[in-house]
Automatic annotation (TrEMBL), chain A:
Keywords of the record: Membrane, Transmembrane, Transmembrane helix
UniProt protein name: Putative membrane protein YagU involved in acid resistance
Residues annotated as transmembrane: 12-34, 54-72, 84-104, 124-144, 156-178, 253-277, 298-321, 333-354, 366-389, 401-424, 456-475
Top-level taxon of origin: Bacteria
Gene source species: Thermocatellispora tengchongensis
Residues in coiled coil: none
UniProtKB/TrEMBL annotation, chain B:
Molecular functions (GO terms): NADH dehydrogenase (quinone) (non-electrogenic) activity
Protein name: NADH:ubiquinone reductase (non-electrogenic)
Reaction equation(s) it catalyzes: a quinone + NADH + H(+) = a quinol + NAD(+)
EC number: 1.6.5.9
Domain FAD/NAD(P)-binding: 156-479
Organism taxonomic ancestry: Bacteria, Bacillati, Actinomycetota, Actinomycetes, Streptosporangiales
Keyword vocabulary terms for this entry: FAD, Flavoprotein, Membrane, NAD, Oxidoreductase, Transmembrane, Transmembrane helix
Keyword Flavoprotein: yes
Segments traversing the membrane: 12-35, 47-68, 74-95
C-alpha cells in the first residue's frame, strides 16, 4: 500500500507535502526556538528576528515537504518505512542546507569543514526530526492505518515486547562489559520492541533487511532516548550539541545493536510462530533451506572471501592482523590473515543466509552489503573483537574514532561482499526468470519491497556510518 | 526478469553508461568548481580541483548504469544510490588513492577522514546530483532513442529425453538464455525425473532408496518448460514432434531445433523367452521390481521343503559381463547374503550366483588387469562366471546357455543387449550399431535440418576414428555442447565439433570393493571403492540427493537392510512390462 498519492506526481504531492512540511517545520522550528538558532535563518532575508526566522523556516519547510512528497510519490514505500526516506531526506538537506545553501544565501563562504559540521550537530538532529515528522504525517495523510492495526494485535505486540526484552538483556550485558553504565539499554528494549511492530507492521520479511532497518531504528531511538528526552525532561531544554552527542556516543553502538537484534528476533520469532502454529501449508510456505540454501552458502563463502581480501589491505595498513591473530592465541600477521579470512567467510555465509534473493541488481547488492558491513563494524569491530581479546567494547566517541580504519575496511568489505554475492547469485541462480504467474507475483512482491525503503536505508546507513564517528570525535 | 523489465541490449547499456558518465562529469565539475571558487580545495598536480571531481564524477556516474541494471530506477532510488556511490568514491579516492599518489600510506584514520571532510561533502552532493542527472538522462535516452526493433520470435528448441544428456542440454540453454540468447526451450520426457544410473544396482540391492538417485527434471532444469509425456512421432519435414501427454489427444510441438537424447533400451535380440521372463535394469521400476522379486523368493525359499525347488529359487543368473551386469550380480550377492540372518531356513551355501558373459574377459571397458581383478574377486566369493558363452533363451524357471547348459532359476537378469531407443529408428537417417543415429562431429544428424542427437542414441565420431562411449560423463558434456552449438547456429556462427577425453571409469564389485582407472591410473579394492563412492556422490544431481545417498550409506553401515516387500506378490509381476514398448522409451 502506498503512503502517499502516486498519480499526478508533483501536483498531487503539493497539498499533503505542504501539510507534512508544516508539521515537520513546527517540530524543527520548536527545536530551533529552544536552541536559539532562528535568527540565523532570518539572516537569509537580512533580518535577525526569531519570528522572521521562524516564518522563513516554515516556508522552507513547506517547500521541502512538497519536494519530499513528490520524491517518494512513485516509491512503493510501505507506510511505516517512509520514516527512513524522511531520515535520509533530512540528512541530505543537512548537507545541502545549513552547510551549503545557507552560507551562500547569507553571502558567506561555504565551509564544509569538520569544525563547522560539529557545530551544526544540533541542526543535523533537527533535520532528522524534520524528516521523521514529515514522513509520519504523510503516512497519516495517506490513510494507511491497516498496518498500524496489524501492529496493534496482542500477539504481535507480545512478540515485539519479547524480542525487545531479550535484545535489551543481551545488549545491556554487553554494555555492562563496556565498563560504562549501559544506561537504560536493558529497559529500553521493551518500548523499543513494542514500538517496532507499531511502526513497521507485523508483515513477514527477510531477517537481513530487518537487521539493517533495526540498526537505523536503533539510531533513531538513541536520538530520542539519549539526546532528546533526558535534558528535556530534566531541565526543560534541548541539548543537541556536539558535546552532548559525544557524551552520549558511548551508548550509540548499544542502541544500534539493540535495534538490529530486536528486529532480527522479532522477525525470527514471527517465522518460528508461523512454522509452529500455522496449520495451513499455503500460509507457511517457504522454500526449504536445503534446496538452494547450500549453494547460497557456497556463494557466501566466495563473496566473503572476496570482501575479506579487499578488507585485508586496510588490515595490513593499519597493522591490525597481529591483533586478530590473538583471537586464536597467535601473534603473527600470517595467522591473523588466516583468522581474518575465515571470519570474512563466516560473515559472508551469514550474509548469504540473511540476504539471499534480496539483490535485484548491483545497486541493491552494494546497498545491502555496505549496510551489513556497517552492522558488523558495530558488532564485530567495536564489540566482539575487543571483548574476545579480553578487553571492553569500544563503546565511546574516542573508541569509534579510533576504530575508523576498521569502519572503512568493514564498509569496503560489505561493498565487495554484496556485489560479488549478487553476481554469483545472478550467474548461477537466475531466480527472476519466471516460469509462471505465481512466480512472477512473488518476484514482483520482493522487488516492491526492495524498492520500498531499502534505498533510503542504504544511503542513511552509509551517511551515518561515515559522519557520526567524525562528528562525535573530540567532544567526549 | 520481473514484469516490466527487459534485458537491456548493448546499445542501451552503453547509452546508460554514457548518460551516467555525462551526468557524473557535470555534477563533479559543478561541485569541484564550487569548492574551488569557495577556496575549499586547492588544485592537485597542476590541475584545478574540479578536474579531480570531474574524473571521480565520471567514474561514479559510469557505474550508475551497471548498478541499476541499465534502467531508470526513479529519482528516489537514483539519488540515494548516487550518494552512496559518491561516499564509496570518497573512500576509494580521497582516503586511499590520493595518499598513494602522494607516495604516502593511506591511514583511513578519523583524523585523515576529518581532513578530507570537505571532499566527503562534495562527493556526497555530487553523487546525489549524479544520480539525479543519470535518472533524467536515462529517461531522455529512453524517450529520444528510436524504438528498438521488435525482436523476431525466439528459436524453438525441443529436447526429447530427460536423461543426463537432455537435462544437461536444458540447463545449458538456461545459462545461454541468461546471456541474452533468445531460445524457447521445451524439454519432453516420459519420466519426470533424471535417473542417476550408476547407482541403479544399489537400489536393486536395497542399499539405496529409489527416490534418492533420481532428481525431478523440474528441479534440475527449473526454468525450462517441461512436458511430461511420450513422443509418438517426429516429422522432420514439418519440424514437428507429436506428443502424447496423457490427455487422450496428441499434441504437436513445432521446433526449429530438435535435440534427441532418448537414450537406449534393453534389447534381447529376439532370443526366445527373454522378453517374457528376464528382468532388466534400466530404470527405477526395474530396480524395485528386481529387489522385491529377490526378497519374495527368499521368503519362499525359507519355507520350501523341496531341495530342487529351493535351489531353483536361490539361483540368480545375470547375462552380460559389462558394467551393468557385473555390478548387478555383485549387488545381488550382497543383498542376499546381508539379509540371510532373517531366513534361518536358508544356509549360507545355498544361494547360487551365475554371471554369463560372451567374451573372454568380463568388463571389456576396463584394462585387462582390472578385468582380471574383478573376475578374481567375484569368483573368490563363489560367484560362477561363465565366459565365452551366451544365454540362448529363457523360460519361466530356467535359462539356456549356448553351451547347452540349462540353469534352473527364477531370476534371470538381462543386461547383455542395448539398442538405441526405438524412436531413433523412426527418423529417415543413417543408423549405426545398436540402431544409434549416426551424427557428425557437431552432433547434427546429416540430412535432417535442425535435428541433433546426443547420448546413448547417437554415434558421435571421436577424433581417433571411433565413437564416443555411452557413459554419463560423455552424455552430460554432449548435452552441454549441443546446446552451445544450437545457440551458435541460431546466432549465425558455426557449431564446434565435440571433443572430450574420458576422465575415468569405475565399476563397483560389491562389498567395499571396486576397480577402475582415472586418466590411466588404476585403482582396485577398498581405495577404488572409496573413490567410486566419493566420485559418484559428487556427481549426483543436487545437494539434496547427495545428502540422502550419504545418509543411506551411513545407515547401511549401522543397520541391516530392509527386507520389506512393498510390491504386489511375485506372481503378479507383469513380465511383459520388463521390456519397454517402443513408444515408452523417450
Amino acid at each position: 500500500m502506498s503512503a502517499v498519492p502516486r498519480a499526478g506526481g508533483l501536483r498531487a504531492a503539493v497539498l499533503p507535502g505542504a501539510v507534512a512540511g508544516v508539521a515537520g517545520g513546527l517540530v524543527f522550528g520548536a527545536a530551533m526556538a529552544m536552541l536559539g538558532t532562528l535568527p540565523t535563518v532570518a539572516s537569509i532575508v537580512r533580518a535577525d528576528s526569531p519570528y522572521t526566522g521562524f516564518a522563513v523556516h516554515l516556508v522552507i519547510a513547506v517547500v521541502l515537504g512538497i519536494g519530499f512528497a513528490a520524491l517518494v510519490s512513485r516509491q512503493r514505500a510501505r507506510a511505516g518505512e517512509l520514516l527512513f526516506w524522511g531520515l535520509a531526506y533530512g540528512a541530505f538537506w543537512w548537507f545541502l542546507g545549513p552547510q551549503t545553501l545557507l552560507p551562500l544565501l547569507r553571502g558567506l563562504p561555504v565551509a564544509w569543514d569538520l569544525a563547522g559540521a560539529r557545530a551544526l550537530v544540533p541542526s543535523l538532529i533537527g533535520h532528522l526530526c524534520y524528516g521523521t515528522a514529515v514522513a509520519l504525517v504523510l503516512v497519516l495523510l495517506s490513510g494507511s492505518r491497516d498496518r498500524v492495526r496489524s501492529g496493534l494485535r496482542p500477539t504481535v505486540l507480545l512478540r515485539g515486547a519479547a524480542a525487545g526484552l531479550l535484545a535489551g538483556s543481551v545488549v545491556g550485558g554487553l554494555g555492562v562489559m563496556a565498563g560504562a553504565s549501559p544506561g537504560p539499554l536493558p529497559l529500553a528494549g521493551l518500548p523499543l520492541g513494542l514500538g517496532y511492530p507499531l511502526l513497521f507492521s507485523a508483515e513477514r520479511e527477510g531477517a537481513g533487511p530487518a537487521i539493517v532497518r533495526g540498526a537505523a531504528y536503533g539510531f533513531l531511538c538513541w536520538i530520542a532516548a539519549e539526546l532528546t528526552l533526558p535534558p528535556l525532561l530534566r531541565d526543560g531544554v534541548l541539548d543537541w550539541s556536539h558535546t552532548a552527542a559525544a557524551a552520549a556516543a558511548g551508548r550509540l553502538p548499544g542502541y544500534i545493536l539493540l535495534g538490529a537484534l530486536t528486529s532480527a528476533l522479532f522477525t525470527l520469532l514471527g517465522a518460528l510462530a508461523a512454522g509452529l502454529f500455522t496449520d495451513d501449508v499455503r500460509l507457511a510456505r517457504t522454500e526449504a533451506p536445503g534446496a538452494r540454501g547450500l549453494r547460497a552458502t557456497g556463494h557466501g563463502i566466495l563473496a566473503g572471501l572476496a570482501g575479506g581480501l579487499v578488507f585485508t589491505g586496510v588490515m595490513v595498513a593499519a597493522g591490525a592482523l597481529p591483533t586478530v591473530a590473538r583471537l586464536v592465541g597467535g601473534q603473527s600477521a600470517a595467522v591473523g590473515l588466516l583468522v581474518h579470512l575465515v571470519i570474512a567467510q563466516i560473515v559472508g555465509v551469514s550474509y548469504a543466509v540473511l540476504f539471499r534473493r534480496r539483490g535485484f541488481d548491483l545497486a541493491s547488492g552494494l546497498g545491502w552489503g555496505v549496510s551489513y558491513g556497517f552492522v558488523w563494524w558495530v558488532l564485530g569491530g567495536l564489540t566482539l573483537l575487543p571483548v574476545l581479546l579480553g578487553g571492553e567494547p569500544r563503546w565511546s566517541a574516542a573508541g569509534m574514532a579510533a576504530a575508523f580504519p576498521s569502519l572503512v575496511g568493514h564498509l569496503a568489505y560489505g561493498a565487495a561482499l554484496g556485489m560479488v554475492y549478487y553476481a554469483l547469485e545472478a550467474r548461477a541462480n537466475p531466480w527472476w526468470v519466471t516460469r509462471n504467474e505465481a512466480e512472477a507475483a512473488r518476484v514482483a512482491a520482493r522487488q516492491e519491497q526492495t524498492l520500498g525503503s531499502a534505498p533510503a536505508l542504504w544511503t542513511l546507513t552509509a551517511i551515518l556510518a561515515l559522519i557520526i564517528p567524525l562528528l562525535v570525535a573530540g567532544g567526549g | 526478469m520481473a514484469p516490466g523489465d527487459g534485458v537491456a541490449g548493448p546499445v542501451a547499456r552503453w547509452a546508460s553508461v554514457g548518460a551516467g558518465a555525462g551526468g557524473g562529469l557535470v555534477a563533479g565539475v559543478l561541485v569541484g568548481a564550487l569548492m574551488e571558487h569557495q577556496g575549499m580545495v586547492a588544485g592537485r598536480a597542476g590541475a584545478p580541483a574540479w578536474v579531480a571531481f570531474g574524473v571521480l564524477g565520471v567514474v561514479v556516474g559510469a557505474a550508475m548504469g551497471p548498478l541499476h541494471g541499465h534502467r531508470a530506477p526513479g529519482a528516489a532510488v537514483a539519488v540515494p544510490g548516487g550518494m552512496t556511490a559518491g561516499l564509496l568514491g570518497w573512500m576509494v579516492w580521497f582516503l586511499t588513492g590520493e595518499p598513494l599518489l602522494r607516495g604516502e600510506a593511506p591511514e583511513w584514520s578519523a583524523e585523515a577522514a576529518g581532513r578530507a571532510y570537505r571532499e566527503l561533502v562534495g562527493c556526497l552532493l555530487s553523487g546525489g546530483l549524479t544520480g539525479a542527472l543519470y535518472q533524467g538522462a536515462a529517461l531522455l535516452v529512453r524517450r529520444l532513442a528510436p524504438p528498438a526493433p521488435e525482436p523476431g520470435p525466439a528459436a524453438r528448441v525441443v529436447v526429447v529425453g530427460g536423461g543426463f544428456a537432455g537435462v544437461a542440454a536444458a540447463r545449458r540453454f538456461e545459462r545461454l538464455a541468461l546471456r541474452g540468447h533468445r531460445l524457447d526451450v521445451t524439454l519432453v520426457s516420459a519420466s519426470n525425473y533424471l535417473l542417476f544410473t550408476p547407482m541403479l544396482a544399489e537400489v536393486a540391492s536395497g542399499a539405496l532408496q529409489a527416490r534418492h538417485i533420481s532428481a525431478p527434471v523440474r528441479a534440475a532444469a527449473s526454468h525450462t518448460r517441461f512436458r511430461h509425456g511420450t513422443v509418438e512421432q517426429i516429422d522432420p519435414v514439418r519440424r514437428t514432434v507429436t506428443l502424447d501427454a496423457g490427455s487422450g489427444r496428441p499434441e504437436a510441438l513445432p521446433y526449429d531445433h530438435l535435440v534427441l537424447a532418448v537414450g537406449s533400451v534393453a534389447h534381447a535380440a529376439g532370443l526366445p523367452g527373454v522378453d517374457e521372463h528376464a528382468f532388466t535394469l534400466k530404470d527405477l521400476g526395474d530396480a524395485r521390481v528386481l529387489r522385491d522379486h529377490v526378497l519374495a523368493l527368499l521368503e519362499r525359499a525359507d519355507l520350501e521343503p523341496d531341495d530342487r525347488k529351493r535351489r531353483q529359487l536361490l539361483t540368480f543368473v545375470v547375462a552380460g559381463g559389462g558394467f551393468a551386469g557385473t555390478e548387478a550380480v555383485a549387488e545381488l550377492f550382497d543383498l542376499v547374503h546381508s539379509v540371510l540372518p532373517y531366513y534361518p531356513g536358508i544356509g549360507e551355501g545355498d544361494p547360487r550366483f551365475v554371471l554369463v558373459h560372451s567374451g573372454a574377459m568380463i568388463l571389456p571397458e576396463l584394462p585387462p588387469e582390472l578385468g582380471a581383478y574383478a573376475l578374481e574377486r567375484l569368483r573368490a566369493r563363489g560367484i560362477e562366471v561363465r565366459l565365452g558363452v551366451r544365454a540362448a533363451g529363457a523360460g519361466p524357471a530356467d535359462v539356456r546357455l549356448t553351451s547347452g547348459e540349462l540353469i534352473s532359476t527364477r531370476t534371470f537378469v538381462w543386461t547383455a543387449g542395448q539398442r538405441a531407443n526405438p524412436l531413433a529408428a523412426t527418423l529417415p537417417a543413417e543408423r549405426g550399431r545398436g540402431g544409434a543415429l549416426v551424427v557428425d562431429a557437431t552432433m547434427r544428424v546429416p540430412g535432417l535440418e535442425g535435428v541433433w542427437a546426443v547420448g546413448d542414441c547417437a554415434r558421435i565420431p571421436a577424433p581417433d576414428g571411433g565413437t564416443y562411449p555411452p557413459t554419463a560423463q560423455h552424455a552430460q558434456r554432449e548435452g552441454r555442447q549441443v546446446a552451445d552449438n544450437i545457440a551458435a547456429v541460431v546466432s549465425g556462427r558455426a557449431p564446434r565439433p565435440f571433443a572430450f577425453r574420458t576422465l575415468g571409469v569405475f565399476v563397483a564389485l560389491g562389498h567395499r570393493t571396486a576397480a577402475g582407472e582415472i586418466r590411466g591410473r588404476r585403482f582396485s579394492g577398498l581405495a577404488a571403492w572409496m573413490l567410486w563412492r566419493g566420485i559418484y556422490l559428487a556427481k549426483l544431481p543436487g545437494i539434496e540427493k547427495r545428502a540422502r545417498v550419504l545418509f543411506d550409506w551411513a545407515l547401511d553401515l549401522a543397520f541391516p537392510r530392509d527386507i520389506a516387500v512393498t510390491a504386489p506378490p511375485a506372481h503378479r509381476f507383469p513380465a511383459a512390462a520388463r521390456f519397454p514398448r517402443p513408444e515408452e522409451g523417450s
